[in-house]
Amino acid sequence: MKVTARLTWIEEKILEKLLGNASLTLLYQSSAHKNCVSEMTQKYSLQGSTMTVFHLEKDVVVGVFILENFPRLVSEKPCTCAWFSLKRNNSSGISALFLNTKVIVDSEELIIFSLDGLSLSVTPLRGFTLALNDTVMNGLELNLGHGFLPVECEIFRVDGIKKNPSFIKKMVTAEQHRGKLLSALRAYKPYKDLVSEGSYSLGGPSRLRESRAFSTQWKSAFQGHLTRQAHCGGSDESSITKQYRVYSIKDGKSGETLPFMLCDSMGLEEGEEAGLCIDDIPHILQGCVPDRYQFNPCEPMKPKHSPHAASPPLKDRIHCVAFVLHINSVNTLSDKMVAKLKKIRKDVVDCGIGYVALLTNVEEYDEVLDDSFANMTETVTSLSQVQNVQKWLNIPIANILMVSNYASERRLEPMKDILVFAALRQMLRAADDALEDLLLEDTGNLAPF
Questions:
Q1: Which of 129, 219, 231, 293 could be bridged to 244 by S-S, CB 3.0 to 4.6 A?
Q2: 216 and 95 in a common domain
Q3: What's the number of domains the chain is made of?
Q4: Which of 306, 296, 324, 300 minimizes the C-alpha distance to 239?
């Protein structure tokens, strides 16, 4: 008889994402199989990594992931474990804890506990009761009584997971770190309130329109869901690829507009009369280009074309530039393209504007940041792509950021969002450094760029 998991498809996907795109296979279900510890351990002790899930009343799910093999009968062994909980009506609000845990199995009881005071016990022969102490209840943000009866217990085999405790810890704690970064960005204010909103220009080679794809990903991360992808151009020369766009960012929680804007220009091409004209760059940096302005690759903008004053106020200017590059194309950029990037970098420096580099389409995105989510790992910083960008743009390693694009996903991933937020945080810092350099005793005497 085929047994169908009580865990819903969406819940399975959430838990699979929690463990870095693993896959779950149902092995045991208490209502369909024999309710005893010996039955459980005999069948599943050699299955590799497992996830034991308890379905409780009030549509609450609590579980424990065990990286090592499920323990044998009558044994006590230390295990690398992740504890988690989620509510069926709020599946995005998953809570998780990473702990080094001991698992004890005897003929009547399964006990999972840690030195931190978290404990879980399962006694199938006594009505399959489940006990969680106050520490684990608080850690998993549960509001339940003690000694409650689970509606169902299920055990899943977990396939396709890296057998690395530090990786598991990073995946489990990613959601919490994402929340911290998001809170800090929501509270951001430009340096000394010199401007009400920071303007951040994205630009790079036209290939795949990386800057426009990144701007959409940025908006999605703040909205809390994947937004409609912005037009990214392609092989055709449609009008949208030539437009200058200014995107405001709304907070999906409060609905308020956040104090930074993305300014996305036409992509660069190798030819002299294709792509963004290099002579238009100073106009963009000075804030002279209006939203939806149609660039002409063969004719640079002239002062009379600009609706702005000759010396736009500080609030209208670009405060940080991000060079957006596809990581797989960095090492194959032509000398002409590198020369254009260097020319733009010179214009940026001459204008006193902060700048960073964003490398997109990073595949092993879970390995980019260290366990504290603070810095790029040594492996990443030694990549030839990073070293080339550092050489071309004379840019500190700290200002070379990596992001992973959303492709076929239907839901946001915490680790991808962390990279987006970390990139934005560094862009804000670069902009604040530039604003600090511009600050004079009388801000009204700020000289034009």
A1: 293
A2: no
A3: 2
A4: 296
